[in-house]
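Q: Give me the 3D complex with nicotinamide-adenine-dinucleotide.
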Amino acid sequence: MIPTPSLRSGPLRNLVTGGAGFVGSHLVDRLMQAGEEVLCLDNYFTGRKANIAQWIGHPRFELIRHDVTEPIQLEVDRIWHLACPASPVHYQFNPIKTAKTSFLGTYNMLGLARRVRARLLLASTSEIYGDPEVHPQPESYRGCVNTIGIRSCYDEGKRVAETLCFDYRRMHGTEVRVARIFNTYGPRMLPDDGRVVSNFIVQALQGQPLTLYGDGQQTRSFCYVDDLVEGLIRLMNGAHTGPINLGNPGEFTIRELAELVRTRINPGLELVLQPLPQDDPRQRQPIIELAQRELGWEPTIPLEQGLEPTIADFRRQLGL
Ligand code: NAD
Ligand code: UDP
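A: Here is the predicted complex, encoded as structure tokens.
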């Protein structure tokens, strides 16, 4: 592990932006369990205090209500920059705000990283590949993104966030790590999150038809959240700057996912077709050779297995 420069002694102090969200709260759990200090920063747009309630009052944990589009001064060793809505429904709710969150949020966090000489990890996304013409996707693929479509606020926001990271590295020597995260699922997703795994599970648990957008032949590759968090930690601790794909190479059509969910919950449910949203990518599958080689990382939990705790968590959230 490469030590992060710090004038303080004691446990590493981590800033987790978006720490009350789905992925962020699982990362907070891991850092707290490792005996580190955590400053969890969130504006609660899609995050919930309930996700980190287990740590409130702990001497190594602090909660900060803040919006990353505004600057902030803190003394930290590491910045895990996850703050940004991830579900299309949420990031399209106020697309201008989403673009600001990606650009200004990353700019502010890089400014902080530069000032206090912290290492910053950016949660980038497979969406920077857009609707890919190369399949599966290696990190060297530069993507096929519509600059003016309804997904652009998020896709282009993350692309410029990556650019900022590498310009800070070149200009100021800021230590950066960039993870390109592929579709991730697991406990603590919101029932109204709007992404496909949560939609299908909630629909099935409520006895409603499962909504397939388009013909359901588009593909995604679903990574269980514990696997992703392990990859993020290895990336932050390692020497490779990235960008590096973190995802599960197991590729499924959306129709196959619907079948998996309904078989587990209620095989009698209908599948209903709804219009495919604009610019919806047709296919998505990571090549993870770089992560295997540089981080010794690969997912360990197949979709069939990861669906079980995810379904159990939604049952609990819905009081079923
Ligand atoms: P999420 O919506 O559950 O979490 C995002 C968190 O950021 C929430 O707690 C939200 O309140 C907070 N936030 C949003 N805007 C903010 C702002 N302006 N200031 C402060 N906090 C703000 O989403 P997630 O699935 O946990 O995603 C976390 C990160 O990982 C995001 O950056 C996302 O782009 C990236 N990512 C996630 C996936 C995935 O499948 N989950 C895939 C690719 C990339
Ligand atoms: N999708 C679907 N039904 C839903 C929600 C999503 O068929 O109720 C589809 C969506 O059109 C996309 C895929 O599932 O092709 C994944 O969508 P999600 O929003 O989870 O992630 P993203 O498109 O950002 O990868």
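A quick observation: The longest strand covers residues 119-125.
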